[in-house]
Amino acid sequence: MSCIELIHTADxxxxxxxxxxxxxxxxFGAPCRVRPEPVSFGVAPDPARNQYxxxxxxxxxxxxxxxxxxxxxxxxxxxxxxxxxxxxGEAQLPGRCALVSIHRLHDEFYGLPPNASAxxxxxxxxxxxxxxxTYGLVHCDDWECVMSSSHGVERLDVKSAQFCLGCARxxxxxxxxxxxxxxxxxxxxx
Length: 190
Hints:
This protein is an alpha/beta fold.
């Protein structure tokens, strides 16, 4: 099985990725390792927006040396794509490169006190979501699925960090069984 490599820019503490790696490994059933030294993408902000073009960073990632398998970059840069005001991340669909920004995942961005737990949970959901795209997954209609679309932290906070059964089977194969939490949820509704 191909390895998932986590890389980061200098503004991201390596400890944040060390916490992320085991959860990514569990989600995809693939080994996940953190590259300890930060990377630089050598991109400049878009002068009109004062943000960074996510697609240009993905293109730069394709040329990084020594990156076997899939690569997830975590950065503090404020990302955009031309049709949206901002994005939490972007990925090749399908492909091997994905990118997540924590810039708008911090509670401080919204004028709230710091919340390290919320930041870690949001980063996990975005990391799994963007890596899911590299496996060929598109946005899911199941609002609890990690592959459902999130255009704001409020939406990100209510979805799960897990794949729905359909998405899990597309990533890990037909032997994946329905998660217990979904069975319990459905049993309560009957």
